[in-house]
Amino acid sequence: MEDIQSRLSPIPRLLRVDENPDSGMWILYILIVFLCIIAYKLGFARKLPLLKSVIVYLFLILGSTILTFLAIFLPVAEGLIVIALVLAVYRFRRWREGARENPGE
């Protein structure tokens, strides 16, 4: 029978989810919530009223629960890291272009 360690995605393997599932899963969950919030803020966030923002973040946190279970064997956290990096580079380039077009502001 195949060892579960070899089937884990790299980040859950790094967090030792198979050896210490309680703390490993909580850390993985917090990491995924954090990465989802970063991806949302960098790529999709708009100015919303407070109640709508609370609802958006509540659903983001609930959706991260499902992503955490998928992240055990699939590269969900790794994909979120790549998404955050790509969106950060895009935002930086967009900011730099805006600063170049409007140097006095």
Would you write up a description of this structure?
With 105 residues, this protein is an all-alpha fold. It has helices spanning 4-7, 10-14, 21-43, 50-70, 76-101. The protein contains five helices and no strands. Helix 3 (21-43) crosses helix 4 and helix 3 runs parallel beside helix 5. The longest helix has 26 residues, at 76-101.
Number of E strands: 0
Helix share bin:
over 70%
Helix-strand makeup class? mainly alpha
Number of helices: 5
Oligomer: single chain
Mean pLDDT: 89
Largest sheet: none
Specify the overall morphology.
elongated
Distance between the termini: 65 Å
Could you give the order of the helices and strands? HHHHH
Properties at a glance:
single chain, mainly alpha
Could you give a short description of this structure?
The protein has five helices and no strands.
Task: Compile the SSE list and pairings.
Blueprint: H1 4-7, H2 10-14, H3 21-43, H4 50-70, H5 76-101
